[in-house]
Amino acid sequence: MAYSMTGFGSAQLSRDGWQCQIEIRSVNSRFLDSRIKLPTGFQNLEQSLNQTIKEHCSRGKVDCTINLQNTENAENALCLNKTLARHYGQLVRDFEQTTGLPVQLSLRDLLAIKDLIQLPTVDAESPFFNQLIQECLTDAVLQLKQMRQVEGGKLTGDIQTRLKSCGGYLDQIEQYAKELPNLYFQKIAALIQTLETKVNVDQGRLEQEIAILTDRSDITEEIVRFRSHLAHVDEVFLQNECGKKLDFLLQELNRETNTIGSKAGHQGISQLVILIKSELEKIREQIQNLE
Fold it and tell me: How many CA atoms lie within 13 A of 201 on its CB side?
C-alpha cells in the first residue's frame, strides 16, 4: 500500500492532573529525518520517541512538538525560584549597606533575572511522564499515518490513471509500427520516381533494403519491455515503501520511451512519444511524494 510522505497528526492526553499535547507533521524527504521539540528537562526521552516514529514512518522529514501542562495548578503555572531570590536579596542588602544607597527594583528588573521565575519543577525521570508522552505520541503518529495513507491513495489513483493513458498511447504506437514497412516502401518508391535518370530497380534488392530499414527501426522489444514495466508498477503499489521502487521503474519507462522515439523516425510515433513523456514527467513529480 502506498503512503504519502505528507501528513499531519495531533493528540491530547490527560492524566493525574497533567495534560500532554502533541502535534506532528511530515513532508517529503529522501530519508527519514525526525526532529522532536521536547519540554525542558525531557531530552532523555528523545531516542525512544524517535524510535516510535520510526516504527510508523520510513521516509519523510518529520517535525514533532510536545507540550506538558499541569492542569490542576494552571493558575500557578509559574513559580519563584526561592533559593535564587534569597541570593539576590542578600546581594541587594550588601550593596545598600556598603554604599549607603537604596536599591529600587521594578518588576521588569526581576523578570530580567534568568531563572528567577520558572515553571514548576518536574521529575523528567519519572515513568509517569514517560508513559504519558509515549501514549500521546503513539496516538498522534497513528493520525499522521492515517492521513498519509489517504493522501497516498489519491496519489496512487492519479498515477495509475496516467499510466493507463501511457498504455493507450503505446497501443497507438504499435499500430503505427506495423505500418512502417509499407511506409518505407512507398517512400523509397516515390524517391526513385523523382530521379531524372530512370533506373531499373531490382524488386528483390528493394525489398531487402526495406527489410534492413524495418529491422533497424523495429521497436517490438521496447514495447514489450514498456508493458512489462507497467505491469510491474501495479505489483509495486501493493508493497510497503514503494516510492524508491517506483522511481526506478519510471526511469526504465523513460528509457524505453526515448529509444522508441529515436528508432522509429515516424511523425505519428514521435507525437505519441511526446505525450507519453509528458505523462511520465507528471508521474515523476507525484512519485516524489510517496514513501
Answer: 15
